[in-house]
Amino acid sequence: MSFQDYSEILFDACTSCLGEGATYCPKKGNSYPISGVFTKEYMLIQEGSFDTPASSAEPVFEITSRDCSPNIGDRLKIRDELYRVAEIKPNSEGQIKLILKKGERL
Questions:
Q1: What's the gap between Cα 74 and its chain centre?
Q2: 3-102, CATH topology level
């Protein structure tokens, strides 16, 4: 078994315990149900100018790449709130972190 196989098994276990349902609404096409791990305030730390780090608390929805092919601008309905996909951060093991912006309309 490869590292990616183990990573998928672990993420599937996390999703079954900690995950929740959402409605994925692509810019083109029909909306559909999806499961992932939602973090309402994920701390994102980025290198700022003059070696000063900048941070922000953004909502994040983590999914697997086999469940969805996200695009920036797509929308998600999670816990009766609407979000827009602002950034997509895939890793090498098949998971994707969707950095979201709150308050977008469908």
A1: 11
A2: Thrombin, subunit H (2.40.10)
